[in-house]
Specification:
Elements: E1 3-4, E2 7-13, E3 16-21, E4 25-27, E5 30-33, E6 39-42, E7 47-53, H1 55-71, H2 76-89, H3 91-94, E8 98-103, E9 108-111, E10 117-118, E11 124-128, H4 131-144, H5 149-163, E12 172-176
Antiparallel strand pairs: 1-4, 2-3, 2-11, 3-12, 4-5, 6-7, 7-8, 8-9, 9-10
Helix pairs in contact: 1-2, 4-5
Length: 177
């Protein structure tokens, strides 16, 4: 059986960035936990990350990223690139089944399970089983409403929870201004 978990979404709007996630962890066809916190503040709240994938792998990846972030404080791109280098050369890391979105006041990065570092051009990033649903909702809300970044993330995740069986409506959203 495979562990599935989550939907993580980040949106940038009007000089603010919000990142949120649901709380569901599924193992096979069973919900193991409905209130897992997959959004974490790093570097004294200057950076926020969200993870999806195998929970243990995601925690291992986040710990390594946080270590790199301490090596390069205030420079999430450099920290992510150094982690990507490590990911590609370390056998244990290459087997991790996890992805992360990390945000600072000025940057949004998506770290893939292949050791890639992607910076979205439109300020929207999504990962996890409901990521495509949340991203579609966020793009529509961003283009056609006056909602804030935080409100767009919350509403988009709620919409994804109504479509994706691995996403629930126990949503946590954090914001950096």
């Amino acid at each position: 059986m495979k562990s599935h978990s989550t939907t993580i979404l980040s949106v940038r709007k009007d000089g603010k960035v919000a990142i949120g996630g649901d709380g569901q962890v599924t193992f096979g066809s069973s919900i193991m936990k409905s209130d897992t916190r997959k959004i974490r503040k790093l570097l004294d709240g200057q950076v926020i990350s969200g993870f999806a994938g195998s929970t243990a792998d995601a925690f291992a990846l986040m710990e390594r990223f946080e270590g790199r972030l301490k090596d390069y404080p205030g420079n999430i791109t450099r920290a992510a690139l150094e982690l990507a280098k490590e990911w590609r050369t370390d056998r244990a890391l290459r087997k991790l089944e996890a992805m992360m979105i990390v945000v600072s006041k000025s940057e949004t990065l998506l770290l893939t399970g292949n050791g890639d570092v992607v910076q979205p051009t439109d300020g929207i990033a999504a990962i996890g089983s409901g990521g495509n649903y949340a991203m579609a909702a966020a793009k529509a809300l961003l283009a056609h409403t006056e909602l804030s970044a935080k409100e767009i993330v919350a509403e988009s995740l709620r919409i994804a929870s109504e479509i994706d069986i691995y996403t629930n409506s126990n949503i946590i959203v954090e914001e950096l201004a």
